[in-house]
Write a structure and sequence with these properties.
single chain, alpha+beta, 6-stranded mixed sheet, globular
Amino acid sequence: MSATSLFAPDKNLALELVRGTEAAVMASGRWMGRGNKNEVDRAAVEAMRYMLNTVSMNGVVVIGEGEKDEAPMLANGESLGTGEGPDVDIAVDPIDGTRLMAHGLGGALSVVAAAERGAMFSPKNLFYLDKIVTGPEAADFIDIEAPIHINIRRVAKAKSKAVEDVTVIMLDRPRNEAIREEVRKAGARIRLIPDGDIGGALATCGVKGTSADLLLGSGGSPEAVITACAVKCLGGSMQCRPYFRNEADEVVAMERGIEKHTILDLEDLVRGENVFFAATGASDGDLLKGVAYSGAHIHTWSLCMRGKSGTVRYIEAIHSPKKLSELGSSIDYSPGASSHR
C-alpha cells in the first residue's frame, strides 16, 4: 500500500487508534486509587500494545512515554501495527497522569498520535520543555520569547476578554513558581493541575467541556510532541524551548544543536497536516469522563481528531468483556484480572 492511501478522504487512522486508548483505560482502570503507578502503567501499556498491533499500519514508536521515569513503556523504536499499510510515526502515552490514576484523582487520559514517517520531533534525552499553548482565536498572537504579561494581554485582546478574565493553566511544579508569580502580577486567573498537561493544553483549544485560554510553564517533552499533534488538529498554536534541569541536560542538548534559546514551534514538533490524535478518559476530568464499570459492560468516553480535515469526533462506547474474550483478545478485562498481580 502506498503512503498516500493513508490520507485519502475516507481514511481516518484516528478511528483505529482510539481502539488502543480504549483498551488501555479498560485494562488499567481497576487500578484506580490503589496507589500503584507501575501496575497502572503496566496494564495500560500491555493492552495498548496488543490493540495497536492489530491496526493496518507500519508504525514506529517515536515517543514512548515512561523513558524519563523508568516506568513500563512502549519503547522508542518499537514497531507497532500489522506491518501492512502506511509508514507512520507513533507517539503514545498509555496513561497521561499515571499518578492521578494511582491516587484516585481526576483528569488522567490515554493518548496516542500518528503522523507520516519522519514528521515527529524526537526529544531523545531532552526531557523537559517550556511551553506556551493557546487555541485558534489567539493562535497568531503568542510568542514564547515575549514577557508573560504581554502574552496574556495579547490573548485577552484576541478573545475580546479583560485580562482578569483570562485563565492560565499550568502544572503545579516548583520549577513553574516564577511563571506563576508573573501571571499573578499580570492579573490573570490561574488554574493549577497536578499532572497531565496534554489535557491542560487541549483545554485552551475550545474542546467541549473545557475552559482555559493559555497554557504556560515547563512539562515533559514527550507530552509536548503528543500535544502538538492535537493542537495542530484543533487549529491552535504552540511554542516550546528547552528547559534544562542542570548542566548535563544542556551539554547533551547542545550536542544535537539545541541551545537554551532554541524555539520549537508547532511545525518543528510535528510537520504537515497528516496528523491523527485519539484520547480516552481514564479518570473523570473536564475533557472526558473516565472509564466506568457496570456489571457485564465497560463504558468509555473518547475523542479522535484528524489534522487534514479538522474533524473532532466524540465517541461514547459500551464494551462487552465477555464478547471481546470470545473474539480471541488476549487482554483480560475481567474484574479479577488486577487481583492476580
